[in-house]
Amino acid sequence: MNTITVIGNAGKPVELKYTASGLAMGTFTLATTSGKDDKKQTVWHNVTVFGQLAEHVASSIEKGSHVMVVGKLDISSYEDKKTGEKKWTTKILADEVGLSCRFRPVIADKTEQVVGQIAQAFGTPKFLQEEAF
């Protein structure tokens, strides 16, 4: 079984792209740090997410977010065009990504839920009705 779990800080916002077939693909880096003081060591992980998860991650994760990633470790090789050397890359193909509540609370966006409750209590405002568009 090839499963890896990494918890760290997002190094940059998620870069979201779409393939020619319309599949969403997001990439970002995640820093994990261990050790203390002068023995502190940071390792950077490349993370790739696909599909609806990629879109959700892109709208939820920002630089510095404390994130948990569960996925598969992907190791591949390529030939350096300049030197002809064989080089290796690693990345995590994420199955699950979530914000961590360890250092601060995660505030969920409840806008749709609140608008629904208002509409239920008072009716849908004219500007939100389909015929208004």
List the helices and strands and how they pair.
Blueprint: E1 4-10, E2 15-18, E3 24-34, E4 41-50, H1 51-60, E5 66-79, E6 86-99, H2 111-122
Parallel strand pairs: 4-6
Antiparallel strand pairs: 1-3, 1-5, 2-3, 3-4, 5-6
Question: How is this structure best described in words?
Answer:
The chain has 133 residues and is an alpha+beta fold. The chain has a single domain, classed as OB fold (Dihydrolipoamide Acetyltransferase, E2P) (Beta Barrel). Helix content is 17%, strand content 45%. It has a five-stranded mixed beta barrel. The longest helix has 12 residues, at 111-122. The relative contact order is 0.18. The model has no long low-confidence stretch (mean pLDDT 88).
The amount of beta strand, in percent, is over 45%
CATH superfamily heading: Nucleic acid-binding proteins
The number of distinct structural domains comes to 1
Order of helices and strands: EEEEHEEH
What structural category do the secondary elements indicate?
alpha+beta
Q: First CA to last CA: what distance? A: 51 Å
Say how many strands there are: 6
> Unreliable segments (pLDDT under 50, ≥5 consecutive)?
none
The CATH architecture: Beta Barrel
Major pleated sheet: 5 strands, mixed, barrel
Mean pLDDT level: 88
**Alpha plus pi helix count:** 2
- What is the CATH top level name? Mainly Beta
Helical proportion, percent range: 10-25%
Strand order of the largest sheet: 1-3-4-6-5
Rg over alpha carbons: 20 Å
Backbone shape: extended
- Could you please say which CATH topology applies here? OB fold (Dihydrolipoamide Acetyltransferase, E2P)
